[in-house]
Design goal:
Dehydroquinate synthase-like, alpha domain; globular; 3-dehydroquinate synthase; zinc; Rossmann fold; 7-stranded mixed beta sheet; single chain; cytoplasm; DHQ_synth_fam; alpha/beta; 2 domains; Dehydroquinate_synthase
């Protein structure tokens, strides 16, 4: 088992990474000993892993579970209310520990529920998808969607710990695994050129989920995320770089209907649009754009926007993006391999050229 620490002073917490942690994990049982534990999962993940987690926790804690429908389209205030109702029906007080067992949707919703319930209770992240293991489970971003925008209602609220069992990826559909790779690749683009090169050289090992390669990729992503969050927890500066591809990507998700494009698929297409914008602004050269595009393509990720989306379809959502300041769209754009910046004055005429060209 490997351990990474997210250093946030009194709110610091560990990330545990290993195989089979859902079957035996002293660090998890110790953290909930003598407490009431409320597990939230979905109807896809629960049949696979809920029983194992309950067996692990029951000797140490009183355990309840609440199952939500699976899918981004259910990341709503209505489903969040069902979590609150279940907590109250089970007479859960401020000493309850919420456990998010699932992917990014479950993690985001349970984290937000923990932030709100009785003004804040402890929660633990147990991410079961590649995307949630390398990104959304770490850093304390919690939210639900609104029909007019993704993650528009939320809070920064850190977990007590993150438990990553890499064996969970064995049951992950190929499409979901590929979507997670979009976030893995992102870290190389914005932060670590050597990691991007390593990804290029280990495509087959990753696609076949070779354990050592997969463990290294997850660990390196978590190391970068922990470093960034420790420096900028509430996204006032450098943490915004983690949103590479997300301004375009969130527009795709909102316009196409939540759940029709997986988040990672939308981020992949958005990352290429961001790289094309950077190329048009002469921030990067053709070789970097080509490397980004080709690495996403080898994982069977989309590298173009949906044909049905025109410029107006994009821009109406991009103007609602959470990074907008003083009415200006702010984009994260690569400036070199392993480096990126935040740009606030990208002409909409240039964005139109990039979007329409795809």
């Amino acid at each position: 088992m490997q351990q990474i620490r997210v250093d946030l002073g009194e709110r610091s917490y560990p990330i545990f990474i290993g195989q089979g942690l859902l079957a035996q994990s002293d660090c998890l049982t110790a953290s909930v000993s003598g407490k009431k534990v409320f597990i939230v999962s979905n109807d896809t993940v629960a049949p696979l892993y809920l029983q194992s987690l309950q067996r692990l926790l029951l000797p140490a804690a009183q355990v309840f579970a609440h199952i939500l429908p699976d899918g981004e389209q259910y990341k709503t205030l209505a489903q969040l209310e069902s979590v609150f109702t279940a907590l109250l029906e089970h007479n859960c007080g401020r000493d309850v520990v919420l456990v998010a067992l699932g992917g990014g949707v479950i993690g985001d919703m349970v984290g937000f529920a923990a932030a709100c319930y009785q003004r804040g209770v402890d929660f633990i992240q147990i991410p079961t998808t590649l995307l949630s293991q390398v990104d959304s489970s770490v850093g304390g971003k919690t939210a639900v969607n609104h029909p007019l925008g993704k993650n528009m209602i939320g809070a920064f609220y850190q977990p007590q710990l993150v438990l990553i069992d890499t064996l969970c990826l064995k049951t992950l559909p190929v499409r979901e695994f590929a979507a997670g790779m979009a976030e893995v690749i992102k870290y190389g683009i914005i932060w670590d050129a050597d990691f991007f090169l390593w990804l290029e050289n280990n495509v087959e090992s990753l696609k076949s989920q070779q354990p050592e390669a997969l463990a290294y990729a997850i660990r390196r992503c978590c190391e970068i995320k922990a470093e960034v969050v420790a420096e900028d927890e509430t996204e006032q500066g450098v943490r915004a770089l983690l949103n590479l591809g997300h301004t375009f990507g969130h527009a795709i998700e909102a316009e196409m209907g939540y759940g029709n494009w997986l988040h990672g698929e939308a981020v992949a297409a958005g990352t290429v649009l961001a790289a094309q914008t950077a190329k048009a602004m002469e921030l990067i050269d053709e070789s970097i754009l080509r490397r980004i595009t080709e690495l996403l393509q080898v994982f069977d990720l989309p590298v173009t926007a949906p044909e049905s989306m025109d410029f107006e379809s994009f821009i109406k959502h991009m103007r609602r993006d959470k990074k907008v300041l003083a009415g200006q769209i702010r984009l994260v754009l690569p400036t070199d391999m392993g480096q990126a910046g935040i740009f606030a004055q990208v002409p909409e005429s240039l964005l139109e050229q990039v979007i329409c060209r795809t």
